[in-house]
Design a protein that fits this description.
By secondary structure, this protein is α+β, with helices and mostly antiparallel strands. It has eight helices and eight strands.
């Protein structure tokens, strides 16, 4: 069975377009580095097909021509582990999701070049995906953190509604309400998994949860040069 493999130049382009970092937003591991041999390098990444290179592969698309199947637009750069992962569970890792990963990873790499920072140190890819998935919540967080003239408020509280009264603590915090953000708790769970925030209080029956912004995410929210574009968003 023939496979429509990528040309070497296509593989190199896919890797360079994301700064040799895995495009999975939950991974973002660097995939290239020095070998113990001074004149060589190690690469633990690969150019994976979004739709399969052969008919029996995952997400195979009969409508594509061989040239389209081996084109850069059908590829995504991943570490070896994530490349195996997406092919082992094709129902979870759809064509649409992988295109989103690639787009977000390329956006993160572009921002990294412009801001002179590492793509993986600041988790830019995760921030970009959060903005795409939950644009209204992220927009409110951006506004709230930028309005804090002290730059000291790092915590926020989740409440059911503004109409429900809770005992207020003495520490200044931001507030987000479930009746103003559909699926808010699921969005916050996603953000916790991506290490954007940390829940610092247990969810007792009569006590709303308290969260802490992670420092890199907080800095990103307050960054004036961060592009805000939710036109292609797909809210949770």
């Amino acid at each position: 069975m023939t496979r429509d493999e990528f040309a070497q130049s296509t593989k190199e382009a896919l890797a360079k377009r994301v700064g040799y970092v895995c495009s999975n937003p939950a991974c973002r591991q660097p995939t290239s580095g020095p070998s113990e041999e001074t004149d060589k390098a190690i690469c633990v990444g690969q150019a994976a097909h979004i739709t399969a290179a052969s008919e029996r592969g995952p997400r195979y698309d009969h409508s594509l021509t061989p040239d389209e199947r081996r084109s850069l637009s059908n590829g995504i750069w991943l570490c070896y582990t994530c490349a195996k992962l997406i092919d082992s569970d094709k129902s979870a890792y759809t064509t649409e999701k992988l295109h989103e990963w690639r787009q977000d990873a390329e956006t993160a790499a572009k921002l990294a070049l412009e801001q002179r920072r590492s793509t993986y140190t600041g988790d830019l890819g995760v921030f970009v995906e959060a903005q795409r998935l939950m644009p209204e919540l992220i927009a409110e967080m951006i506004m709230d953190t930028k309005e804090d003239d002290t730059s000291l408020i790092r915590e926020f509280v989740v409440r059911i509604s503004k109409k429900v009264t809770y005992c207020a603590g003495g520490k200044p915090r931001l507030y987000y309400y479930e009746d103003e953000h559909y699926n808010l708790l699921n969005m916050l769970d996603w953000m916790e998994e991506g290490s954007l925030i940390t829940c610092i209080s247990r969810r007792f029956e009569n006590s709303p949860p308290v969260y802490h912004f992670n420092q890199e995410f907080y800095n990103w929210l307050r960054n004036d040069e961060r592009p805000i574009d939710s036109s292609d968003s797909a809210p949770l």
